[in-house]
Amino acid sequence: MTREPLRYNGAVQVKDLPIPDFSPYFPDDLNIYLADGNLDLAATLDVTKGEQLTGSFAGNMGLRNLYALDTVDTDDLLKWESLQVEEVRGTLKPLVVNIGGISLNRFLARLVVDREGTINLKKIRSGPAAQAAVANVQPAPATVRAAPALPSPAAALQKPEAARPEIRIDTVTLQEGTVSFLDQHTPQQFGTTMYNLGGRISGLSSEDFRYADVDLRGDLDKHSPLQITGKINPLSRELFADLKVRFTDIELSPVTPYAGTYLGYEIDKGKLFLDLTYKIEKKALNAQNKVFIDQFTFGKGVDSGKATKLPVRLAVALLKDRHGEIHLDLPVTGRTDDPEFSIFGVVLTVLKNLLVKAATAPFALLQSAFSGGEDLSSVNFAYGSSQLSVEERTKVAKLAGALEQRPGVKLEMTAYVDREKDAEGYRNELLARKMKGEKFAALVKERKNVPGETPEKMEILPAEHDLYLKAVYVKEKFPKPRNTFGFVKDIPAPEMKKLILANTLIGDPQLQALSRERIAAVRTLLISEGKLPPERIFEKGGDMLHPPEKKGQPLSRVEFGVNAQ
């Protein structure tokens, strides 16, 4: 060791140094108590202190039996059996650090949310900044300040950008880790634990475009496997990550404390599977969150002031297929340098939007999965008719198929009419029915009818039109034109039809009958051809003259709605 300049070239070795002995040197606002821990260090140094500290170093370090407690709640915070940092070598100026391997064995981390909703990690520091964070205090509005003067080009040349540290870590190994979580903020306390957390990260480097391989695994509550694989570069100038996260077979009934608090229902059963892909490059995030929920079933209701008023049962019924499965694809995009961006917040927003859509447009949520963009929310009828066209029958068939895939959903139907145009159309419809009835009666009288035929199945041929029109005209009870002898006068067919229609009164009772006929026609098609159980179909009352919500939609229609079983 020399004094001018100060230089040391030698070895440093420490064995079983008790870390708790150094607790008095910790900052006063650090709320951590070290109950145990021993430091081992074996290093060689060649350092010189002149205007700057320069030199090189190499060695190994180990921190064994660490036991740290949270002094605020007097509870376990962090434990591990051993942390080994091996094959360390580097220089001070420029700063270069090469580490052969870091291994953390048999570690325990404990995360706790207290009754006020604050996580224990936020209480590690108790200084003014930390207290503001704990209290969730929003920062005061920024005051307007003069913009700082930009350095001149000459000054920029005189002060070159400081050299970036070069850091390389060959491997990071985790073994037998345990992370426990306890939430005391909900009315019913919730806890879960990740066991056997371990794996390997290899090739960490501060060099741009050099990515480390990640393979981490664990088991939630010793049952649900977790796997994280991919590439990362957290040490470079810009964070890079391309990770796949797979979480399988997560039991949902244990999260009833959250479901009861925020959804208003317990969870009887269900399993969650997550397949997530996250890519961060040049501060841009693109993520895919594929969610599979199997056999999700709500239990009894829970009285909670924090529960959403949105129809969560209906949303689940709309999302759950006939196999009891829910498949969701929730994409997330954003900028990591946006201070207001939150991955978790975006995913929650997407889920909330699903609930809002279930409340405000439940049928749209149903048809979005099945119709390919086609509007199945209503079927239209010709004025005065209760018969569906081929196109409208196809829509009903598609609707039945969608409902067959969503057995937890009930169908509601409401019929509407156009007072002016349906009234005139219904007059013609009633006349056509009477003419068919006359033809059927004539065939029966002549014993020419075919078994299974009904008046509704009769077809009036052009050559028969005037014959059966007159048969109807003769039986009508309204006053008819007569000749000088008082007998009913023969008049042309168009005049007969005109008088029949003019004397056919169509008011609200007749229009109500037409609306019920339309409901019956759709119901019959859903049951007979769509194979939909009758108990899932309901007629819903309402103002039959109410205009449609969508512009351009005909007034003569049957609208569909859905509800949960």
Describe this structure in words.
The strands form two sheets. A 13-stranded mixed beta sheet has the order 1-2-3-4-5-6-7-8-9-10-11-12-13. The protein has a four-stranded mixed beta sheet with strand order 14-17-15-16. It is rod-shaped. The protein is built from eleven helices and 17 strands. The protein is 24% helix and 38% strand. It is an alpha+beta fold and 565 residues long. The relative contact order is 0.06.
Structural class: alpha+beta
The ordered H/E elements are: EEEEEHHEEEEEHEEHEHHEHEHHHHEE
Distance between the termini: 84 Å
Low-pLDDT windows of residues: 129-157
Radius of gyration: 39 Å
Number of separate strands: 17
Average residue-wise pLDDT = 87
Largest sheet, spatial ordering of strands = 1-2-3-4-5-6-7-8-9-10-11-12-13
Number of helices: 11
Helix content: 10-25%
| Sheet having the most strands | 13 strands, mixed
> How big a fraction of the residues is strand?
35-45%
Provide keyphrases for this structure.
single chain, 565 residues, alpha+beta, 13-stranded mixed sheet, four-stranded mixed sheet, 11 helices, rod-shaped
Overview in brief:
The protein is α+β, with helices and mostly antiparallel strands and 565 residues long. Helices cover 24% and strands 38% of the residues.
Secondary-structure blueprint:
Blueprint: E1 6-18, E2 32-49, E3 53-70, E4 75-91, E5 96-113, H1 128-134, H2 153-158, E6 166-183, E7 190-205, E8 212-220, E9 224-233, E10 240-251, H3 256-263, E11 265-281, E12 284-301, H4 312-319, E13 325-335, H5 343-360, H6 362-367, E14 378-380, H7 390-404, E15 409-416, H8 419-445, H9 465-475, H10 493-502, H11 508-528, E16 537-539, E17 557-564
Parallel strand pairs: 5-6, 15-16
Antiparallel strand pairs: 1-2, 2-3, 3-4, 4-5, 6-7, 7-8, 8-9, 9-10, 10-11, 11-12, 12-13, 14-17, 15-17
Helix pairs in contact: 4-5, 8-9, 9-10
